[in-house]
């Protein structure tokens, strides 16, 4: 029997030995987009999923696509060799993948890593990167890439839904084209802004849904900011003058913090157009030293305000004011409504007294005096702590000056 099969087997062996390598390669294909595929313009993306590769898999061919979405694509090293087989790719998303290392392809315009177990993202120190948008989401305490400075074209950086606790902006120093930084949902307790920071194009900073208890020191170093979002942190006491220096700021969101606001120094935000203080538990607000000449929208929805002290005379009907969900004195609300445009966010329930369709108290103000006085005491303590810190800082500077003088006297 072996005599009859020897000829055909030899022929097959010869054919395989001379067959082009391409015939033996594994050609990956784009899958149909499932209904849950969330990416914008899904029809323009090539989805490749449920693939397991060896690290040395060089017999892989990727589709000629500019947008590739890898989901549940598992390989120990997404190496330069594999990435350069994606010849046309400009936009790459990696989701639910397991990799020891991922190499950042220099020619990419956008890169997104989501909910993946990736130990290391490699940014080559010798490559010229064209990346404009970079997103790291749900990678949790994994090591962040080094060499951020190599991403010289980066305009948007999103590091969301991670467990960071602390983030130092020094690692972004020198990204001169960076416009947007999103650090929301990161459990941040501390944001470090160094004394010297070169981010001349940064306009939008989102710190929403974190655990910050106070404003970052050196916040005024971010002079080019136009939008600052501090929604839903744990800031209890806020000195408004700490925002001074953000002379280009147009939108400030402080909603969702249980705030007491003080103003030890005049607040000057010349270009601020929109201020949101929604659900902050505010029982009092004094705007005596606030200089906000460009303000056009003020939202204090769902607080416990009875009045706003020293409501600026400079505010006009151009300002849209959202006061619903407070405990207004009718007299106060009438005075405010004569100056600005009242917007009813949600219609108040039936009540005996209303001004501009907003419920208010037409008689004696009914609120817990003990609670109010306690909050005043806490606010005074907070203000005193700020004054104490400033005094300490002044003393330190004075001691340095005295020390220099003493040294000069000794030398003489």
Short description:
The protein has 5 helices and 27 strands.
Written account of the structure:
- There is one protein chain.
- By secondary structure, the chain is α/β, with parallel strands linked by helices.
- The protein has helices at residues 2-18, 21-24, 80-83, 330-337, 369-411, and strands at 26-27, 46-52, 60-61, 67-74, 77-78, 91-95, 98-103, 110-114, 117-122, 133-137, 156-160, 166-168, 180-182, 190-192, 204-206, 227-229, 237-239, 251-253, 260-262, 267-268, 274-276, 290-291, 297-299, 320-322, 341-342, 354-355, 358-359.
- A 14-stranded parallel β-sheet has the order 2-4-6-8-10-11-13-15-16-18-21-23-24-25, with no helix packed on it.
- The longest helix is centred in the last third of the chain and has 43 residues, at 369-411.
- The protein starts with a helix and ends with a helix.
- The relative contact order is 0.05.
Strand content: 15-25%
Summarize the amount of helix as a percent range.
10-25%
Q: The biggest beta sheet, please?
A: 14 strands, parallel
Low-confidence stretches: 8-24, 364-371
Average of per-residue pLDDT values? 84
Instruction: Report how far apart the termini are.
Output: 113 Å
Number of helices: 5
Q: What's the overall geometry?
A: elongated
Output the strand order for the largest sheet: 2-4-6-8-10-11-13-15-16-18-21-23-24-25
Secondary structural class: alpha/beta
Oligomer: single chain
Compute the gyration radius: what is it? 30 Å
